[in-house]
Write the C-alpha coordinates for this entry.
Amino acid sequence: MTEDKLLIVNLGGFQAQTLAQRLRGCSIYCELVPAADAIAAIGERHPRGIIVIGSPDQEPETVDSAMWSWGLPILGIGRGALAMLRALGGQVEHEAMRDQMLQVHYAQPSRLFGDISYSDRFVTRLYQLVLPEGFQVIAHGHGVPVAFADERRRLYGLQFGVEANDPEGLEILDRFAVDICGCTRWWTVENIVSSIIGDIREKVGDGQALMALSGGVDSSVCAALMHRAIGEQMHCLYIDTGLMRKGDNIIVRERFGAANGIAITCINARERFYDRLKGVTDPKEKWSVIGDEFTLIYQDEARRFPDVRYLVKGTIYPDILNYSDDEQNLNELSGYELIEPARYLFKSEVREVGEYLGLDKVITSRQPLPGSGLAMRITGEASLEKLAIVREADAILREEIENADLSRRLHRWCAQLSDTTSTGEGACHYVVALRAMTRSGFNSAAYRMPYDLLERAATRILTELPVVDRVVFDLTPSPLRPEDWES
Protein backbone atom coordinates (compact mmCIF):
# COMPACT_ATOMS: atom_id res chain seq x y z
CA MET A 1 0.00 0.00 0.00
CA THR A 2 1.04 3.63 -0.49
CA GLU A 3 3.15 5.49 2.06
CA ASP A 4 0.36 8.09 2.32
CA LYS A 5 -1.04 6.57 5.49
CA LEU A 6 -1.54 6.92 9.22
CA LEU A 7 -0.36 4.29 11.67
CA ILE A 8 -2.65 3.43 14.57
CA VAL A 9 -0.79 1.98 17.56
CA ASN A 10 -3.14 -0.21 19.59
CA LEU A 11 -2.52 -0.27 23.35
CA GLY A 12 -5.31 -2.80 23.83
CA GLY A 13 -9.08 -2.94 23.37
CA PHE A 14 -11.44 -2.64 20.41
CA GLN A 15 -11.30 1.16 20.01
CA ALA A 16 -8.39 1.02 17.55
CA GLN A 17 -10.41 -0.90 14.95
CA THR A 18 -13.38 1.43 15.36
CA LEU A 19 -11.06 4.40 14.89
CA ALA A 20 -9.53 2.87 11.76
CA GLN A 21 -12.94 2.40 10.20
CA ARG A 22 -13.89 6.00 10.98
CA LEU A 23 -10.72 7.31 9.34
CA ARG A 24 -11.16 5.14 6.28
CA GLY A 25 -14.73 6.39 6.06
CA CYS A 26 -13.14 9.83 5.59
CA SER A 27 -11.03 8.36 2.73
CA ILE A 28 -7.89 8.42 4.92
CA TYR A 29 -5.88 5.21 4.70
CA CYS A 30 -4.58 3.80 7.99
CA GLU A 31 -3.11 0.58 9.33
CA LEU A 32 -3.09 -0.90 12.83
CA VAL A 33 -0.14 -2.32 14.75
CA PRO A 34 0.21 -3.61 18.32
CA ALA A 35 2.30 -1.49 20.68
CA ALA A 36 5.17 -4.01 20.69
CA ASP A 37 5.62 -3.65 16.90
CA ALA A 38 5.25 0.13 16.70
CA ILE A 39 8.89 1.15 16.20
CA ALA A 40 9.56 -1.51 13.56
CA ALA A 41 6.33 -0.60 11.74
CA ILE A 42 7.16 3.11 11.69
CA GLY A 43 10.53 2.37 10.11
CA GLU A 44 9.11 -0.03 7.54
CA ARG A 45 5.85 1.70 6.57
CA HIS A 46 6.86 5.39 6.69
CA PRO A 47 3.53 6.81 7.89
CA ARG A 48 2.73 10.52 7.78
CA GLY A 49 1.50 10.45 11.37
CA ILE A 50 0.67 8.22 14.33
CA ILE A 51 -2.40 7.76 16.51
CA VAL A 52 -1.97 5.94 19.83
CA ILE A 53 -5.17 4.60 21.42
CA GLY A 54 -6.15 2.13 24.12
CA SER A 55 -9.12 1.02 26.18
CA PRO A 56 -9.72 3.04 29.35
CA ASP A 57 -10.74 -0.17 31.12
CA GLN A 58 -7.37 -1.92 31.00
CA GLU A 59 -3.75 -1.20 31.62
CA PRO A 60 -2.07 -0.17 28.36
CA GLU A 61 0.73 -2.10 26.72
CA THR A 62 4.18 -0.53 26.87
CA VAL A 63 5.27 1.69 23.99
CA ASP A 64 8.94 2.16 23.10
CA SER A 65 9.90 5.66 24.27
CA ALA A 66 11.68 6.27 20.95
CA MET A 67 8.31 6.67 19.24
CA TRP A 68 7.55 9.98 20.95
CA SER A 69 10.75 11.59 19.62
CA TRP A 70 10.49 10.20 16.07
CA GLY A 71 9.54 13.62 14.71
CA LEU A 72 6.14 12.58 13.33
CA PRO A 73 2.82 14.12 14.37
CA ILE A 74 1.26 12.00 17.14
CA LEU A 75 -2.27 12.02 18.50
CA GLY A 76 -2.77 10.15 21.79
CA ILE A 77 -6.37 9.21 22.63
CA GLY A 78 -7.49 7.94 26.05
CA ARG A 79 -4.76 5.67 27.39
CA GLY A 80 -2.63 6.80 24.47
CA ALA A 81 -2.69 10.38 25.77
CA LEU A 82 -1.67 9.23 29.26
CA ALA A 83 1.14 7.11 27.82
CA MET A 84 2.44 10.17 25.93
CA LEU A 85 2.19 12.32 29.05
CA ARG A 86 4.17 9.91 31.24
CA ALA A 87 6.83 9.22 28.59
CA LEU A 88 7.58 12.94 28.16
CA GLY A 89 7.86 13.81 31.83
CA GLY A 90 4.26 14.59 32.87
CA GLN A 91 2.26 13.08 35.70
CA VAL A 92 -1.18 11.55 36.16
CA GLU A 93 -2.30 12.70 39.62
CA HIS A 94 -5.74 11.16 40.26
CA GLU A 95 -9.04 10.27 38.61
CA ALA A 96 -11.25 13.36 38.47
CA MET A 97 -14.34 12.07 36.67
CA ARG A 98 -15.86 8.83 35.38
CA ASP A 99 -18.66 7.94 32.97
CA GLN A 100 -20.52 11.25 32.70
CA MET A 101 -21.27 14.15 30.41
CA LEU A 102 -18.91 17.13 30.52
CA GLN A 103 -19.03 20.55 28.90
CA VAL A 104 -15.63 20.99 27.25
CA HIS A 105 -14.22 24.46 26.58
CA TYR A 106 -11.38 24.94 24.07
CA ALA A 107 -8.89 27.17 25.81
CA GLN A 108 -6.83 28.55 22.96
CA PRO A 109 -6.42 28.19 19.20
CA SER A 110 -5.16 24.79 18.11
CA ARG A 111 -4.74 23.25 14.67
CA LEU A 112 -6.47 20.16 16.04
CA PHE A 113 -9.74 21.88 16.96
CA GLY A 114 -9.96 24.81 14.55
CA ASP A 115 -12.91 27.04 15.42
CA ILE A 116 -14.70 24.63 17.79
CA SER A 117 -15.55 26.72 20.90
CA TYR A 118 -17.23 24.30 23.30
CA SER A 119 -19.18 21.06 23.25
CA ASP A 120 -20.82 18.53 25.52
CA ARG A 121 -19.10 15.13 25.50
CA PHE A 122 -19.29 11.88 27.35
CA VAL A 123 -16.05 11.03 29.16
CA THR A 124 -15.24 7.52 30.36
CA ARG A 125 -12.18 8.40 32.45
CA LEU A 126 -10.81 11.87 33.14
CA TYR A 127 -7.63 12.44 35.14
CA GLN A 128 -6.05 15.48 36.75
CA LEU A 129 -2.69 15.98 35.02
CA VAL A 130 0.65 17.73 35.38
CA LEU A 131 1.77 18.53 31.84
CA PRO A 132 5.34 18.03 30.56
CA GLU A 133 7.47 21.01 29.58
CA GLY A 134 6.40 22.51 26.26
CA PHE A 135 2.77 21.37 26.54
CA GLN A 136 -0.27 23.56 27.04
CA VAL A 137 -3.91 22.86 27.84
CA ILE A 138 -5.99 23.23 24.68
CA ALA A 139 -9.32 22.06 26.17
CA HIS A 140 -10.63 21.83 29.72
CA GLY A 141 -13.73 21.06 31.75
CA HIS A 142 -14.36 21.63 35.45
CA GLY A 143 -10.75 22.71 35.82
CA VAL A 144 -9.37 19.43 34.42
CA PRO A 145 -7.14 19.29 31.28
CA VAL A 146 -9.28 17.45 28.75
CA ALA A 147 -6.80 17.93 25.88
CA PHE A 148 -3.20 19.12 25.71
CA ALA A 149 -0.64 19.79 22.98
CA ASP A 150 2.89 20.75 22.06
CA GLU A 151 2.06 22.51 18.80
CA ARG A 152 5.70 22.95 17.85
CA ARG A 153 6.39 19.21 17.94
CA ARG A 154 2.87 18.37 16.68
CA LEU A 155 2.08 16.20 19.72
CA TYR A 156 -1.54 16.08 20.89
CA GLY A 157 -3.35 14.28 23.69
CA LEU A 158 -7.11 13.80 24.18
CA GLN A 159 -8.69 12.37 27.30
CA PHE A 160 -11.96 11.77 25.42
CA GLY A 161 -12.65 9.35 22.61
CA VAL A 162 -13.36 10.58 19.09
CA GLU A 163 -13.68 7.17 17.47
CA ALA A 164 -17.41 6.69 18.06
CA ASN A 165 -20.51 8.81 18.74
CA ASP A 166 -18.58 12.04 19.19
CA PRO A 167 -20.17 15.30 17.95
CA GLU A 168 -16.98 16.65 16.34
CA GLY A 169 -15.04 13.39 16.17
CA LEU A 170 -14.74 13.22 12.39
CA GLU A 171 -13.76 16.87 12.17
CA ILE A 172 -10.98 16.42 14.75
CA LEU A 173 -9.68 13.26 13.06
CA ASP A 174 -9.79 14.91 9.65
CA ARG A 175 -7.86 17.94 10.94
CA PHE A 176 -5.17 15.73 12.40
CA ALA A 177 -4.87 13.53 9.31
CA VAL A 178 -5.08 16.20 6.59
CA ASP A 179 -4.11 19.55 8.12
CA ILE A 180 -1.45 18.36 10.55
CA CYS A 181 -0.09 15.15 8.97
CA GLY A 182 -0.62 16.09 5.32
CA CYS A 183 -2.50 12.96 4.30
CA THR A 184 -4.56 12.96 1.11
CA ARG A 185 -8.06 11.51 0.86
CA TRP A 186 -7.23 8.75 -1.59
CA TRP A 187 -8.89 5.74 0.11
CA THR A 188 -11.96 5.52 -2.14
CA VAL A 189 -13.61 2.40 -3.52
CA GLU A 190 -12.40 3.25 -7.04
CA ASN A 191 -8.79 3.51 -5.88
CA ILE A 192 -9.10 0.42 -3.69
CA VAL A 193 -10.31 -1.73 -6.58
CA SER A 194 -7.77 -0.27 -9.01
CA SER A 195 -4.90 -0.86 -6.56
CA ILE A 196 -5.92 -4.45 -5.76
CA ILE A 197 -6.41 -5.39 -9.40
CA GLY A 198 -3.06 -3.85 -10.32
CA ASP A 199 -1.32 -5.81 -7.54
CA ILE A 200 -2.94 -9.07 -8.68
CA ARG A 201 -1.91 -8.59 -12.30
CA GLU A 202 1.64 -7.70 -11.33
CA LYS A 203 1.98 -10.77 -9.10
CA VAL A 204 0.21 -13.39 -11.25
CA GLY A 205 1.33 -12.23 -14.70
CA ASP A 206 0.43 -15.01 -17.12
CA GLY A 207 0.12 -17.58 -14.31
CA GLN A 208 -3.02 -19.26 -13.02
CA ALA A 209 -4.80 -19.11 -9.66
CA LEU A 210 -7.24 -21.33 -7.78
CA MET A 211 -9.77 -20.41 -5.10
CA ALA A 212 -12.22 -22.35 -2.95
CA LEU A 213 -15.47 -20.38 -2.81
CA SER A 214 -17.52 -20.55 0.37
CA GLY A 215 -20.39 -18.47 -0.97
CA GLY A 216 -19.86 -15.78 1.66
CA VAL A 217 -19.18 -12.09 1.07
CA ASP A 218 -15.41 -12.29 1.52
CA SER A 219 -14.68 -15.19 -0.82
CA SER A 220 -17.16 -13.95 -3.44
CA VAL A 221 -15.66 -10.45 -3.56
CA CYS A 222 -12.13 -11.86 -3.71
CA ALA A 223 -13.11 -14.18 -6.56
CA ALA A 224 -14.73 -11.27 -8.41
CA LEU A 225 -11.58 -9.17 -7.99
CA MET A 226 -9.42 -12.03 -9.27
CA HIS A 227 -11.70 -12.57 -12.26
CA ARG A 228 -11.68 -8.83 -13.04
CA ALA A 229 -7.87 -8.88 -12.88
CA ILE A 230 -6.91 -12.07 -14.73
CA GLY A 231 -10.10 -13.46 -16.28
CA GLU A 232 -9.98 -17.14 -17.21
CA GLN A 233 -6.60 -17.56 -15.53
CA MET A 234 -8.66 -17.74 -12.32
CA HIS A 235 -10.30 -21.08 -11.40
CA CYS A 236 -13.04 -21.34 -8.75
CA LEU A 237 -14.00 -24.40 -6.74
CA TYR A 238 -17.16 -24.71 -4.72
CA ILE A 239 -17.00 -27.60 -2.28
CA ASP A 240 -20.54 -28.53 -1.27
CA THR A 241 -20.06 -29.70 2.32
CA GLY A 242 -23.76 -30.22 2.98
CA LEU A 243 -23.34 -27.86 5.95
CA MET A 244 -24.45 -24.67 4.22
CA ARG A 245 -27.63 -22.61 4.49
CA LYS A 246 -30.72 -23.19 2.40
CA GLY A 247 -30.24 -21.83 -1.12
CA ASP A 248 -26.48 -21.31 -0.83
CA ASN A 249 -25.69 -23.62 -3.74
CA ILE A 250 -28.00 -21.74 -6.10
CA ILE A 251 -26.61 -18.38 -4.99
CA VAL A 252 -23.04 -19.51 -5.68
CA ARG A 253 -23.69 -21.17 -9.03
CA GLU A 254 -26.29 -18.84 -10.54
CA ARG A 255 -26.45 -15.46 -8.82
CA PHE A 256 -22.67 -15.26 -8.49
CA GLY A 257 -21.03 -17.53 -11.05
CA ALA A 258 -23.40 -17.44 -14.03
CA ALA A 259 -24.41 -13.80 -13.46
CA ASN A 260 -20.78 -12.64 -13.57
CA GLY A 261 -19.44 -14.99 -16.22
CA ILE A 262 -17.28 -16.86 -13.71
CA ALA A 263 -16.89 -20.59 -14.30
CA ILE A 264 -17.20 -22.58 -11.07
CA THR A 265 -16.29 -26.23 -10.58
CA CYS A 266 -18.77 -27.67 -8.05
CA ILE A 267 -17.72 -30.64 -5.93
CA ASN A 268 -20.40 -32.69 -4.15
CA ALA A 269 -18.60 -33.74 -0.97
CA ARG A 270 -21.63 -34.08 1.31
CA GLU A 271 -21.24 -37.78 2.04
CA ARG A 272 -17.57 -37.34 2.94
CA PHE A 273 -18.42 -34.71 5.55
CA TYR A 274 -21.44 -36.59 6.89
CA ASP A 275 -19.35 -39.75 7.35
CA ARG A 276 -16.59 -37.85 9.17
CA LEU A 277 -19.08 -36.16 11.51
CA LYS A 278 -20.89 -39.33 12.62
CA GLY A 279 -20.60 -39.73 16.37
CA VAL A 280 -18.65 -36.46 16.82
CA THR A 281 -20.16 -34.34 19.59
CA ASP A 282 -17.32 -32.16 20.92
CA PRO A 283 -17.34 -28.66 19.34
CA LYS A 284 -13.58 -28.46 18.90
CA GLU A 285 -13.46 -31.92 17.36
CA LYS A 286 -16.27 -31.01 14.96
CA TRP A 287 -14.40 -27.90 13.86
CA SER A 288 -11.17 -29.89 13.44
CA VAL A 289 -12.85 -32.69 11.46
CA ILE A 290 -14.54 -30.24 9.08
CA GLY A 291 -11.34 -28.22 8.55
CA ASP A 292 -9.26 -31.35 7.91
CA GLU A 293 -11.74 -32.79 5.43
CA PHE A 294 -12.03 -29.48 3.60
CA THR A 295 -8.24 -29.28 3.24
CA LEU A 296 -7.99 -32.88 1.99
CA ILE A 297 -10.64 -32.28 -0.67
CA TYR A 298 -9.01 -29.01 -1.70
CA GLN A 299 -5.66 -30.80 -2.05
CA ASP A 300 -7.22 -33.50 -4.21
CA GLU A 301 -9.00 -31.02 -6.46
CA ALA A 302 -5.98 -28.71 -6.75
CA ARG A 303 -4.08 -31.52 -8.45
CA ARG A 304 -6.58 -31.31 -11.33
CA PHE A 305 -5.13 -27.89 -12.15
CA PRO A 306 -1.42 -28.63 -12.71
CA ASP A 307 -0.65 -25.16 -14.06
CA VAL A 308 -1.91 -23.34 -10.97
CA ARG A 309 0.80 -21.58 -8.94
CA TYR A 310 -1.35 -19.34 -6.76
CA LEU A 311 -4.03 -20.09 -4.19
CA VAL A 312 -6.52 -17.35 -3.32
CA LYS A 313 -7.93 -16.92 0.17
CA GLY A 314 -10.73 -14.62 1.37
CA THR A 315 -8.78 -13.21 4.32
CA ILE A 316 -9.91 -9.76 5.48
CA TYR A 317 -8.25 -7.26 7.81
CA PRO A 318 -9.98 -8.34 11.08
CA ASP A 319 -8.81 -11.91 10.40
CA ILE A 320 -5.23 -10.64 10.60
CA LEU A 321 -5.83 -8.39 13.60
CA ASN A 322 -7.84 -10.99 15.54
CA TYR A 323 -7.05 -14.40 14.09
CA SER A 324 -10.21 -16.48 14.05
CA ASP A 325 -9.90 -20.18 14.82
CA ASP A 326 -12.76 -20.81 12.45
CA GLU A 327 -10.67 -19.80 9.44
CA GLN A 328 -10.04 -22.89 7.35
CA ASN A 329 -6.36 -23.77 7.47
CA LEU A 330 -5.10 -24.06 3.92
CA ASN A 331 -1.45 -23.59 4.79
CA GLU A 332 -0.86 -27.32 4.36
CA LEU A 333 -1.22 -26.86 0.60
CA SER A 334 2.50 -26.43 0.08
CA GLY A 335 4.10 -25.53 -3.21
CA TYR A 336 1.76 -22.61 -3.94
CA GLU A 337 1.93 -18.88 -3.39
CA LEU A 338 -0.89 -17.24 -1.45
CA ILE A 339 -2.94 -14.28 -2.69
CA GLU A 340 -5.29 -12.44 -0.32
CA PRO A 341 -7.00 -9.66 -2.32
CA ALA A 342 -9.04 -8.31 0.63
CA ARG A 343 -6.27 -8.64 3.21
CA TYR A 344 -6.38 -4.94 4.18
CA LEU A 345 -10.16 -4.43 3.99
CA PHE A 346 -12.70 -4.32 6.80
CA LYS A 347 -15.97 -6.19 6.26
CA SER A 348 -17.86 -2.98 5.43
CA GLU A 349 -15.23 -2.17 2.79
CA VAL A 350 -15.48 -5.67 1.32
CA ARG A 351 -19.22 -5.19 0.90
CA GLU A 352 -18.65 -1.77 -0.68
CA VAL A 353 -16.15 -3.24 -3.15
CA GLY A 354 -18.63 -6.00 -4.01
CA GLU A 355 -21.34 -3.44 -4.76
CA TYR A 356 -18.89 -1.43 -6.86
CA LEU A 357 -18.09 -4.57 -8.87
CA GLY A 358 -21.81 -5.07 -9.51
CA LEU A 359 -22.37 -8.20 -7.43
CA ASP A 360 -25.94 -9.13 -6.55
CA LYS A 361 -27.13 -7.61 -3.24
CA VAL A 362 -28.03 -11.09 -2.03
CA ILE A 363 -24.26 -11.70 -1.99
CA THR A 364 -22.96 -8.37 -0.70
CA SER A 365 -25.50 -8.25 2.15
CA ARG A 366 -25.07 -11.86 3.27
CA GLN A 367 -24.87 -12.67 6.97
CA PRO A 368 -21.64 -14.28 8.20
CA LEU A 369 -21.56 -18.06 8.50
CA PRO A 370 -18.71 -19.94 10.20
CA GLY A 371 -16.43 -21.81 7.82
CA SER A 372 -17.61 -24.98 9.54
CA GLY A 373 -21.17 -24.11 8.60
CA LEU A 374 -24.37 -25.15 10.33
CA ALA A 375 -22.57 -27.91 12.24
CA MET A 376 -21.53 -25.25 14.78
CA ARG A 377 -25.18 -24.28 15.30
CA ILE A 378 -26.08 -27.76 16.48
CA THR A 379 -25.14 -28.90 19.96
CA GLY A 380 -24.00 -32.49 19.90
CA GLU A 381 -23.73 -34.62 16.77
CA ALA A 382 -24.49 -32.85 13.48
CA SER A 383 -26.71 -35.60 12.08
CA LEU A 384 -28.57 -35.38 8.78
CA GLU A 385 -31.87 -34.91 10.60
CA LYS A 386 -30.52 -32.10 12.79
CA LEU A 387 -28.89 -30.35 9.83
CA ALA A 388 -32.18 -30.40 7.92
CA ILE A 389 -34.02 -28.92 10.92
CA VAL A 390 -31.59 -26.08 11.61
CA ARG A 391 -31.27 -25.28 7.89
CA GLU A 392 -35.04 -24.87 7.50
CA ALA A 393 -35.43 -22.97 10.79
CA ASP A 394 -32.62 -20.61 9.74
CA ALA A 395 -34.32 -19.98 6.38
CA ILE A 396 -37.64 -19.20 8.09
CA LEU A 397 -36.00 -16.73 10.48
CA ARG A 398 -34.09 -15.08 7.62
CA GLU A 399 -37.27 -14.67 5.56
CA GLU A 400 -39.19 -13.11 8.47
CA ILE A 401 -36.34 -10.69 9.25
CA GLU A 402 -36.10 -9.62 5.61
CA ASN A 403 -39.88 -9.22 5.34
CA ALA A 404 -39.77 -6.97 8.42
CA ASP A 405 -36.97 -4.93 6.81
CA LEU A 406 -34.71 -5.54 9.82
CA SER A 407 -31.71 -7.08 8.09
CA ARG A 408 -29.74 -3.82 7.86
CA ARG A 409 -30.15 -3.17 11.58
CA LEU A 410 -28.73 -6.54 12.56
CA HIS A 411 -25.12 -7.66 12.51
CA ARG A 412 -25.97 -11.33 12.65
CA TRP A 413 -28.83 -13.72 13.28
CA CYS A 414 -29.23 -17.46 13.34
CA ALA A 415 -31.24 -20.45 14.50
CA GLN A 416 -29.60 -22.94 16.88
CA LEU A 417 -30.62 -26.51 17.61
CA SER A 418 -30.29 -27.90 21.11
CA ASP A 419 -29.25 -31.52 21.71
CA THR A 420 -31.82 -31.74 24.51
CA THR A 421 -35.48 -32.47 23.89
CA SER A 422 -38.42 -30.60 25.36
CA THR A 423 -40.14 -33.72 26.74
CA GLY A 424 -39.15 -36.76 28.67
CA GLU A 425 -41.52 -38.93 26.65
CA GLY A 426 -40.41 -41.43 24.06
CA ALA A 427 -40.93 -39.18 21.07
CA CYS A 428 -37.95 -36.96 20.17
CA HIS A 429 -39.05 -33.35 19.94
CA TYR A 430 -36.38 -30.72 19.39
CA VAL A 431 -35.86 -27.23 20.81
CA VAL A 432 -34.91 -24.44 18.39
CA ALA A 433 -33.36 -21.25 19.76
CA LEU A 434 -33.38 -18.01 17.78
CA ARG A 435 -30.63 -15.42 18.27
CA ALA A 436 -29.96 -11.96 16.84
CA MET A 437 -27.05 -9.59 17.38
CA THR A 438 -26.50 -5.93 16.65
CA ARG A 439 -23.17 -4.11 16.60
CA SER A 440 -21.86 -0.63 17.37
CA GLY A 441 -18.27 -0.31 16.20
CA PHE A 442 -16.78 -3.61 17.40
CA ASN A 443 -19.21 -4.10 20.29
CA SER A 444 -21.83 -6.82 19.81
CA ALA A 445 -25.03 -7.03 21.81
CA ALA A 446 -28.09 -9.23 21.81
CA TYR A 447 -30.89 -7.60 19.82
CA ARG A 448 -34.43 -7.66 21.18
CA MET A 449 -36.42 -8.52 18.09
CA PRO A 450 -40.07 -7.40 17.86
CA TYR A 451 -42.40 -9.87 19.51
CA ASP A 452 -44.71 -10.12 16.50
CA LEU A 453 -41.75 -11.14 14.33
CA LEU A 454 -40.69 -13.79 16.85
CA GLU A 455 -44.26 -15.05 17.05
CA ARG A 456 -44.51 -15.41 13.27
CA ALA A 457 -41.15 -17.19 13.06
CA ALA A 458 -42.00 -19.51 15.95
CA THR A 459 -45.41 -20.38 14.49
CA ARG A 460 -43.90 -21.21 11.11
CA ILE A 461 -41.11 -23.32 12.60
CA LEU A 462 -43.55 -25.31 14.73
CA THR A 463 -45.92 -25.76 11.77
CA GLU A 464 -43.39 -26.56 9.06
CA LEU A 465 -41.08 -28.67 11.25
CA PRO A 466 -43.25 -31.13 13.22
CA VAL A 467 -40.20 -32.59 15.02
CA VAL A 468 -39.77 -29.21 16.74
CA ASP A 469 -42.20 -28.54 19.59
CA ARG A 470 -40.54 -25.61 21.36
CA VAL A 471 -38.99 -22.36 20.09
CA VAL A 472 -37.06 -20.05 22.44
CA PHE A 473 -35.31 -16.71 22.02
CA ASP A 474 -31.71 -16.41 23.25
CA LEU A 475 -30.99 -13.04 24.87
CA THR A 476 -27.65 -14.01 26.40
CA PRO A 477 -25.36 -10.95 26.28
CA SER A 478 -22.32 -10.89 24.02
CA PRO A 479 -19.35 -11.23 24.48
CA LEU A 480 -20.43 -13.40 27.45
CA ARG A 481 -21.40 -15.97 24.83
CA PRO A 482 -20.78 -15.70 21.06
CA GLU A 483 -23.49 -15.83 18.42
CA ASP A 484 -22.98 -19.51 17.63
CA TRP A 485 -23.42 -21.85 20.61
CA GLU A 486 -20.61 -24.14 19.51
CA SER A 487 -18.08 -21.37 18.75
About this structure: Confidence is low (pLDDT under 50) at residues 324-329. DSSP finds 14 helices and 18 strands in the chain.
